[in-house]
Sequence to fold (356 residues):
Amino acid sequence: MTILVPEKPKRKLKPTAPFVPDLVYFEPQALEYEKGKRIMEWVKANNIEYRMTTSHNRITNLPGETDQEKYRIAKRTLVVGLRKTLKFDQSKPSAEYAIPISTGCMGHCHYCYLQTTLGSKPYIRVYVNTEDILHAAKDYIEERKPEITRFEAACTSDPVGLEHITGSLGDLIRFMADEEFGRLRFVTKYHHVDPLLNIKHNGHTRIRFSVNAEYVIKNFEPATSRFEERIEAAGKIAHAGYPLGFIIAPIIWYDGWEEGYSELLERLKENLPQEATKDLTFEMIQHRFTKTAKNVIEQRYPKSKLEMDIAKRETKWGKWGQYKYVYPKDQQQALREFITERIFDAFPQAKIEYFT
Ligand code: SF4
Fold:
């Protein structure tokens, strides 16, 4: 007699919730702006504790006993202020300029370069003077036209994860839709794209999702949306007519990386709707770190499996005036060639923008 063992029902995972800060600071001037007022209403409606501060650059009284605790609390703290510096940084190789709408992120990716670039200010800052930021962008576009000027909105943050609070990406997308010579792009590890789906974009905004081998997502990307959620969101973005892309970053050399990255491309191919595969771009960034980053990461994530052995790496001069450690040439080449082949196997029409 055959005994039928009922299949175990698959555990339904809860969707990754949109970010809700534990504490919010406001610069008084921010409340003179519509966006600032709206954020205040949202804060009150959600019963979130808030305080006033003189400057978004000087939040000194954050709670927490140890540095690690302070860091964790800072990552759940939102600061609402005005962007004063309207000179944009360069953002090679993905765009000409970084457009600043937010700084800091609630994700806990161990390898994230914000660990060092934000120094002692890991809290999340959002800027409400979007009009000023758009005027500055307009000047950059005018200066370079008829060349196209591309703006990257995710250089210092993951703005998709903050969109339900600020609406700033929506403002940028609408603005860029009417700019003949301006383009917007941003990358995300969050799937909360619904506020972007019905916006007029004219194909001038490219939205990319950061994806990786399961090993990397599982071990190094806490507090971000799951792979399946990101892919589902990518399908929605393509359906809304936006140009779509993927960034595979950081590419990590680990035992089993070939299987890991093959599987990544297979899963993308299986799960992406057909309409998402037209005009698809890929960017590839190998893992790198500086000595400062290594120290900070070891303090903040002491149990991390992230390999940062200087003896196994090669140096490259970095724009922050420090050497960064990348993989030796032969490993770089192996990663690049292997993943490139897998990309073209899965998506023969895709465009690879760069490997760095
Ligand atoms: S989601 Fe992006 S910006 Fe946020 S911590 Fe992770 S790598 Fe950094």
Remarks:
- The chain has eleven helices and 15 strands.
- The longest helix spans residues 329-346.
- The radius of gyration is 21 Å.
